[in-house]
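Archive entry: two folds, one per protein. Generate the first.
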Amino acid sequence: MGRQHQTASLPLILPAALLLLLGATITEARVLRRVNDRSLFDATSECKKASYPDLCNSLAPSASVGSLTAASIDVATSKAKEAAAISAKLMKAPGTEKLMKSTLCVCRDAFSSVADSLQLSAKNLKDAAHTDLMVNLSAAMSLKANCADAFQDWPGLVSPVADINDHLSKLVSNSLDLASTLKN
């Protein structure tokens, strides 16, 4: 009779043991989160520090602020190269007036310079050269303004690259915001 009692309770003990094991695993995971902040990086909370959080969140998930910053710089670099190519294409389009061509030339050169500064920024980030990173991101931000300024010099001349310049501005701004949160 004692033997039947032990066999009958085995099915009851097994689920209870599994629940205890599962509970311990969940508790260990919670402790791990508290002990090792880097193991569960929250890109959403870091993106709240960016000027354009939704744009930043589109780059998530990332493993760290550094990788999120790198992704932001990479996207901005691609956008700057795209803007330079579009400006060059518009310059060569048949019927483009001389004033528009010269203004788009300023934009093409500005966007190319932005791409160069962003590429240097990516290298600075990899090399952990924080001061240089911030200098090159700030330069990219200043350089991209050259295109808008060129069109402002000619009232009535409408920029065909205003939207891409605005988007680039947001990407560079987010890169700068994220980089500023990195430790020196």
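Generate the second and append.
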Amino acid sequence: MSDLPKAALFDMDGTLLDSEKLWDIAMGDLAVDLGIEMTHELRESTLGNSMNDALTKVFAAASVPVDDRDYPGRGAWLRDRVSTLFTAGIPWMSGAREALDMIAAQGIPLALVTNTERVLTEQALDTIGRDRFAATVCGDEVPVGKPAPDPYLRAAHLLGVDAADCLAFEDSPTGTQAATAAGCAAIVVPSAAPVPAGPRRTIRRSLLGLTLAEVAAAFNGTMGHREDLR
């Protein structure tokens, strides 16, 4: 198909892997350790965030004074907790593996674009498969993580294409904002928080049953808001 994107850029947590549930456990444990409960609203606000942005929101909810916020220490604690949870295995999101295979079969290069730090991403790639991607971009490898466009712009640059010629796959408001700010069209499967409709955003309930015709329609902005899909 000539109207397919030149590259496909995939988020990881909640898009390819059902790992947000594991982050839920770790973030809940962090909140308890700081003396608060991880409410639905607080957890939703941290979805897709960089490590520092997520920690900032939890610190603020726990009323930790700015000068007492131990970003390196708490970041290491959270990283170790998630790593332990990852070790037990990370399930795929429904239809995600098939979507990767279908797009790759067209000769379209794939990139992984995540706010997760490199050390945890490498662990998750044991499940996804490193050889699927021509490039991987992690949250600790760009000046500013999602919702800034930096991760998506870097991925497009590494693939040698313009971001406007790419189709992103996302699950969170934060990640979707980053993708569209970079100029990408996006297929969005909200995992735990609603994502507002917008230009060049196609909302699906799942990646299950995704077709090449739908990929082309999403890239060209002719599909729109499709909550009727799986």
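Annotation attached to the second fold: Residues 224-230 have pLDDT under 50 and may be disordered. The two ends are 23 Å apart (CA to CA).
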